[in-house]
Amino acid sequence: MKEPIMQDHILAASIRNGDIPSFTRVYETYHAYLFRFALRFLKSTEHAEEAVHDVFLKLWENRDGLNNESSLKCYLLKICKSHILHTLTRASKSQAMLQL
What we know:
CATH superfamily: RNA polymerase sigma factor, region 2, helix turn helix motif
Helix content: over 70%
Mean pLDDT: 88
CATH class: Mainly Alpha
Number of helices: 4
Low-confidence stretches: none
CATH architecture: Orthogonal Bundle
CATH topology: Rna Polymerase Sigma Factor, Chain: A
Order of helices and strands: HHHH
Shape: elongated
Distance between the termini: 44 Å
Structural class: mainly alpha
Strand content: under 5%
Number of strands: 0
Number of domains: 1
Radius of gyration: 15 Å
């Protein structure tokens, strides 16, 4: 994971204002970390990459609600965990339906 160049609160404020270079900086900083995290649980590079893509999509779509006081890393990890749990729950339900 690359070291953040700016502090999280500055990046969050910039992203909230629609600053694409700040968003890109956050993406470059946390992408590999989130990918490895997702891969541990999803066991598929395709699904892990999709999870990370969705995390950053949600970050951009919900940028108006970014809090300057919280850590971007923790925020992204929370979104990633939620996406992973949703994916695993959906897969589990699909598997259960196939067994009926």
